[in-house]
Design brief:
The protein has a domain at 37-114. It has helices spanning 2-25, 27-61, 67-84, 88-97, 100-113. The chain is mainly α. The protein contains 5 helices and no strands.
């Protein structure tokens, strides 16, 4: 029900703001502000998005929990959609989501309302044809040394 109310109220708020601001500053300045916020928003989303991707890479590299960098990236993506949507209310929310402190506040509030469950899979238990346990540190196999010259810088060849 709240989603229906949101989809109903946001366009009404935008229309009211367009009428009020357009009446105050005129048609062309109003349209200019809408286009300018879309351009500025696109630039900010790109720069903030690069930073979020770098933080996500660092999180993966350090084997840390990537939840917060992923949430920040999602909020930046959502802010981009809001900033490309014509309107003053959506622009205000979109610009607010580009402020890292505001995103952190939203993330903390979402953490309070969302329960995260994780599943940890244990080691698989199976046996091979000779009935040895898969938990053994020894993996048997066969190999051949390929002495053909390498083609290309990586050493990979096409067959």
């Amino acid at each position: 029900m709240w989603l229906f109310v949101l989809f109903l109220m946001v366009p009404l708020i935008e229309i009211a703001l367009f009428i009020q601001i357009g009446g105050l500053i005129g048609l062309w300045p109003t349209l200019g502000v809408v286009v300018l916020t879309a351009i500025l928003g696109t630039w900010l989303v790109r720069s903030q998005g690069r930073q979020a991707i770098e933080k996500l890479r660092q999180s993966f590299g350090a084997l840390n929990d990537p939840t917060e960098p992923l949430a920040h990236g999602a909020m930046i993506l959502f802010s981009g959609a809001l900033l490309l949507t014509p309107g003053f209310f959506t622009d205000a929310v979109g610009f607010a989501l580009l402020v890292p402190g505001f995103r952190s506040l939203v993330f903390r509030e979402l953490q309070k309302r969302i329960t995260v469950s994780s599943v940890v899979a244990g080691q698989a238990q199976w046996t091979s044809d000779d009935r040895r346990s898969a938990q053994s540190d020894v993996i048997e196999g066969e190999f051949e040394v390929d002495e053909t010259p390498r083609q290309g810088p990586s050493g990979w060849r096409r067959h």
